[in-house]
């Protein structure tokens, strides 16, 4: 497992009694560690921010694809690769309360129980739609906390219907437009190399040489999450993982935002960057 990953991806393995060990990332978000997979071992790689398709191709050339699991939770429209399994999280892109997708060569039996908690997890979506951003962010964190139960369930009927009624192509078009706008503003400052062709990114990852005061941006209604605070407990100082956790701003670029919203975000962030320099 990559050291730069959320605890939500580790707890199911712990609960299943599966032994895990970590590998390190390099500056290009590829695998820095020397790994030799044994016959009963799998390797999981995350398509970070939805910008790592080229890195995935390198990994599938480096390792036996039958032993590779690709995490596309942040890359909804990156196609499943020829590997053991690819997993997706539509709720990060389509405003659904829960549910995931699995493409696998393995014959996986569906769970008997259906997820019944989707209605309670919709509160943050409704608050955001009503323009109550601060309240929606609090409700979002509560919704995330409710997903710690790792018992497998079939996707809820509500989430299934919402996914089927989503305009995937419009979502991708608007995300890429907003992503490109942010890159035009901050590409020269970004320590990450951003690929030329990104289909539907989760966010615009702006990696700086120093941390930014996110609370001051939150006071302006701009909420930038940290991916992921728990990583600091399993990485050393000055590593790629520490820099990503502390210094990478996951700037929102999703389909809810018009160009005017993105320009306001860019203006506020530029002011904050100038105040720190």
Taking all Cα atoms into account, the compactness measure Rg is 19 Å
The mean pLDDT is 91
Number of strands: 6
Biggest beta sheet summary: 4 strands, mixed
* CATH classification class of the domain at 168-275: Alpha Beta
CATH superfamily of the domain at 168-275: Aspartate Aminotransferase, domain 1
The CATH topology of the domain at 168-275 comes to Aspartate Aminotransferase, domain 1
Percentage beta strand:
5-15%
Distance between the termini: 37 Å
CATH architecture of the domain at 168-275: Alpha-Beta Complex
Order of helices and strands: HEHEEHEHHHHEHHEH
Please work out how many helical segments DSSP would assign. Answer: 10
Derived from helix and strand composition plus strand pairing, the structural class reads: alpha/beta
Strands across the major sheet, in which order? 1-2-3-4
């Amino acid at each position: 497992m990559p050291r730069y990953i959320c605890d939500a991806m580790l707890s199911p393995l712990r609960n299943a009694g599966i032994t895990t060990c970590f590998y390190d990332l390099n500056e290009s978000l590829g695998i820095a560690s020397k790994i030799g997979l044994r016959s009963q071992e799998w390797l999981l790689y995350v398509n970070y921010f939805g910008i790592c398709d080229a890195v995935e191709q390198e990994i599938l050339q480096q390792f036996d694809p039958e032993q590779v699991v690709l995490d596309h939770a942040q890359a909804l429209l990156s196609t499943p690769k020829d590997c053991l399994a690819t997993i997706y999280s539509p709720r990060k892109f389509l405003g659904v309360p829960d549910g995931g997708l699995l493409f696998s060569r393995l014959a996986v039996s569906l769970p008997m129980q259906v997820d019944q908690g989707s209605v309670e997890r919709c509160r943050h979506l409704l608050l955001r739609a009503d323009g109550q951003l601060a309240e929606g962010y609090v409700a979002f964190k509560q919704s995330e906390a409710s997903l710690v139960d790792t018992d497998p369930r079939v996707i809820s009927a509500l989430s299934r219907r919402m996914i089927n009624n989503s305009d995937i192509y419009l979502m991708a078009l608007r995300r890429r437009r907003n992503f490109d706008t942010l890159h035009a503003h901050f590409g020269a400052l970004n320590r990450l190399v951003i690929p030329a062709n990104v289909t539907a990114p989760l966010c615009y990852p702006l990696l700086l040489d120093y941390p930014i005061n996110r609370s001051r941006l939150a006071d302006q209604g701009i909420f930038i999450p940290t991916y992921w605070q728990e990583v600091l407990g399993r990485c050393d100082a000055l590593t790629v993982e520490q820099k990503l956790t502390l210094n990478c701003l996951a700037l929102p670029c999703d389909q809810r935002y018009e160009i005017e919203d993105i320009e306001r975000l860019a203006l506020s962030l530029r002011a904050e960057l100038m105040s720190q320099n």
